[in-house]
Design brief:
Number of helices: 3
Largest sheet: 3 strands, antiparallel
Radius of gyration: 14 Å
Strand order of the largest sheet: 1-2-3
Distance between the termini: 41 Å
Structural class: alpha+beta
Shape: globular
Strand content: 25-35%
Helix content: 40-55%
Length: 112
């Protein structure tokens, strides 16, 4: 039986558990971020140690705390100078996720 990957974050790490493999990246040592796909958009993360993970953006939309952990780690990576590719992708993604959350809050409170 196939199950979707499980994504967890904390302690400066993002972990994606699939049916066969477990992949982790250090969010506080990110080296690059890429966005793949137009319809089923995925985010590909690579850390300074060569570890890579790929996750669906829907996971970040559905779980804002995962986005918060990733964004916090990305800021630390930028300050440390390890994040060299993908800062614009993260900035735009953060704006889109914030807009989505705001619309959800306004809709739930009947103000939209």
């Amino acid at each position: 039986m196939l199950r979707p990957p499980r994504v967890t974050a904390g302690g400066g790490r993002l972990t994606v558990r699939g049916p066969v493999r477990v992949r982790r990246v250090r969010t506080d040592a990110l080296a690059g971020v890429r966005r793949d796909g137009r319809i089923a958009t995925r985010l590909r993360l690579c850390d300074a140690y060569g570890h890579r993970v790929t996750l669906d953006l829907g996971v970040l939309i559905a779980h804002p705390l995962l986005w918060h952990e990733l964004a916090t780690g990305a800021r630390r990576s930028l300050e440390a100078g390890t994040l060299r590719h993908g800062t614009e992708i993260l900035r735009l993604l953060g704006r889109d996720l914030d807009d989505t959350a705001t619309r959800g809050i306004l809709g739930a409170s009947g103000l939209e």
